[in-house]
Write a structure and sequence with these properties.
With 86 residues, the chain is of the alpha+beta class. The radius of gyration is 12 Å and the shape is globular. The chain contains two helices and five strands. It has a single domain (7-81), classed as SH3 type barrels.
Amino acid sequence: MEIKNGSVVISSAGHDKGRFMLVVGADGERVYLADGKERKLSHPKQKNLKHIRATRFTIDPAGLTDKRLRQTLSSFAKAGEQVTGE
């Protein structure tokens, strides 16, 4: 699955393991992720591509706020295993 801006991913390594995050940028083998709480849209986390798993969901980042991002990602977390397709 292709990972691009707006893709919802799950962190598979690090202290944020298991969290849903939004891809807000990409640079070669690295992506920039935000969750609206610990990693704001204005200061995304840099993470290696091999440390994330793609989901089938995307969010349009245009006009997105940190609060709205938190709410949206929270709904994915509540859905649990159904989101990842496992």
